[in-house]
TrEMBL record:
Keywords: Glycosidase, Hydrolase, Signal. It comes from the Bacteria. The keyword Signal applies. This is Glycosyl hydrolase family 43. One of its GO terms (molecular function) is hydrolase activity, hydrolyzing O-glycosyl compounds. Belongs to the glycosyl hydrolase 43 family. One of its GO terms (biological process) is carbohydrate metabolic process. Pfam families: Glyco_hydro_43. Residues 1-25 form the signal peptide.
């Protein structure tokens, strides 16, 4: 006997709902995992760089949703597919829009500014560093994006686009250069007013703030207020916390990571203090803001606490800086001073604003050695004797020097074959032209905001090394107890080694490598991690 059609439909609908719920549940989470390529809730790749998060009403439900806009570059796809290649050029695919209700799980909506809208195929120039503001006077959403040597403004009736070109602004009459340096859009959560934050187009030694509004029927920048003049900066962006305004930026390091700098003010137009003397954000020093640049921020009001989300850009396809394009971490505060919590994995409750360290967090800083831009020691910008986050102690052999040609080189630039086995362009390098003995170590301690809980941990690394070592040990020491792994045997191919059941007590551990070898012997290590079991 055949089942009635409506019963079959009900059964089919049930299974569709069941499987859809199962798929979404598999992806739904509250953990933000850095050093990885991100996916949407349906498992599709996220491509979003140089943009921002804004809260707008959903056109259908009228409820507030988070809208994350960023640029999709063709090379981002290629690098994700094969991270052994660093790409030197970029090709604009469109401005993507992702939506979320919790800032962790994102749904892809569409390309809201398309290649066709900017005539990209006929004019393949740079597009990037963008954001969206709602212009109430026109009931329009305005997208501001760098386009060649101008600022492009595109408008749409909905936060979901489609954005159409409204006008281009040549900034020459306003700041003296046709283009801005890096730029972002900041919306004051208390006033609802939006601003463009940008730097001088040449040299980038000045930073400006302009309110976004309407002039003569056109969306425009209503004013130009210089809020900083000093050392060259890029990655200019702003956030608000506890009623104060923070202007932030990075060093001029191309596509590479940098310290996160900040100034603070009581009024949005300043003065930002200390005047023209940007401060390094504590916590960003050991790994250059988790190998990223200041991209944008989002302040979560939260029912229990206000949390500022640092959203760093990692331009991996142009600089080979490891995996993942987006590195997000929570900030903490000591009074007015922001503290950068460099975490590889952490949990966020958007409703309460409370965050916590995830079980999968790697407590090592600069464990893949991507933070260091050049061969170290370096006498070029930035002048640097030690690898970031690590201390190299020379017990025997040539001394470390930025000027002596006999100085040992502390890092290794991975070949493409290496990069098929390990992450990123760089690794730790142990070698010398004379017999040598050295210790490379990192002290890991609990911070005022991130605990290093007591318990057992696993220390792991990838290694390849020649013969010629009389000692080559990976070690971890905590509470007077040490555990080691002997690596002296020649290992010509990349191999992962681990030390398990490392007892850590009192929120402190020292990890590292001890080496003693003949002249010319070498060991290369990468992907060092320390994770709680």
């Amino acid at each position: 006997m055949k089942k009635p059609l409506y019963i079959c439909s009900v059964i089919l609908s049930y299974w569709v709902i069941f499987f859809s719920s199962t798929i979404n549940a598999a992806y739904a989470q509250n953990t933000i995992t850095n050093d990885s390529f991100w996916n949407t809730v349906t498992g599709k790749p996220i491509y979003s760089q140089g943009g921002g998060i804004f809260q707008f009403k959903d056109p259908q439900s009228g409820k507030l949703h988070y809208y994350w806009y960023g640029v999709h570059y063709k090379e981002a796809e290629a690098y994700r597919h094969d991270p052994s290649v660093t790409y030197e050029r970029n090709h604009f695919e469109g401005v993507t829009c992702y939506t979320s209700t919790d800032l962790v799980n994102w749904k892809f909506e569409k390309h809201v500014l398309t290649k066709e809208a900017v005539n990209y195929d006929k004019r393949p120039t740079w597009l990037g560093r963008m954001g969206v503001a709602y212009v109430a006077e026109l009931e329009q959403y305005a997208l501001f994006i760098q386009h060649g040597k101008n600022v492009l403004i595109a408008l749409a009736d909905s936060p979901l686009g489609d954005f159409k070109v409204h006008r281009h602004i040549d900034m020459t009459d306003r700041i003296g250069t046709p283009n801005t340096g890096d730029q972002t859009v900041f919306t004051d959560p208390d006033t609802g007013k939006s601003y463009l934050v940008y730097s001088y187009g040449q040299g980038r030694n000045k930073i400006y703030l302009s309110e976004i509004g309407v002039r003569d029927g056109n969306v425009d920048l209503l004013d130009v207020k210089e809020i900083f003049r000093g050392a060259s900066r890029e990655g200019n962006c702003m956030f608000k916390y506890n009623g104060k305004y923070y202007m932030t930026a990075s060093n001029i390091y191309g596509w590479d990571g940098s310290f996160a700098y900040y100034l603070v003010a009581d009024d949005i137009y300043g003065p930002y203090k200390p005047i023209n003397e940007m401060q390094i954000m504590p916590g960003s020093e050991q790994d250059y803001a988790h190998v990223s640049q200041t991209g944008f921020f989002y302040t979560i009001p939260g029912s229990e606490q206000e949390t500022v989300l640092f959203c760093g850009d990692r331009w991996a396809e142009f600089a080979g800086n490891g995996l993942g394009y987006n590195q997000w971490v929570p900030l903490s505060f000591e009074g007015e001073i922001p503290y950068f919590n460099s975490l590889s994995a952490w949990n966020l409750d958007e409703e309460t604003g409370i965050w916590s360290v995830a079980k999968t967090n790697n407590f090592i800083k600069n464990g893949s050695f991507e933070a260091d831009r050049r061969y170290i020691p370096s006498n070029n910008k930035p002048v640097q004797e030690q690898l970031l986050g690590w201390n190299t102690e020379i017990l025997k052999g040539n001394s470390i020097s930025t000027t002596d040609p006999d100085s040992p080189v502390l890092n290794y630039f991975n070949t493409r074959e290496d990069r098929k086995q390990v992450v990123g362009e760089k690794s730790l390098y142990l070698s010398d032209t004379v017999p040598f003995e050295r210790v490379v170590s990192q002290e890991i301690t609990a911070s005022p905001y991130v605990e290093l809980p007591d318990g057992n941990y696993t220390l792991s690394a990838k290694i390849r090394n020649t013969a010629g070592f009389t000692k080559l040990n990976l070690f971890a020491t905590s509470g007077g107890n040490s555990k080691t792994a002997d690596l002296t045997l020649e290992t010509p191919e990349w191999t992962r080694i681990s030390i398990t059941n490392i007892p850590i007590k009192n929120g402190k551990v020292k990890v590292g490598i001890e080496a003693q070898a003949a002249a010319g012997a070498y060991a290369i290590l990468d992907e060092i991690s320390l994770v709680k079991e």
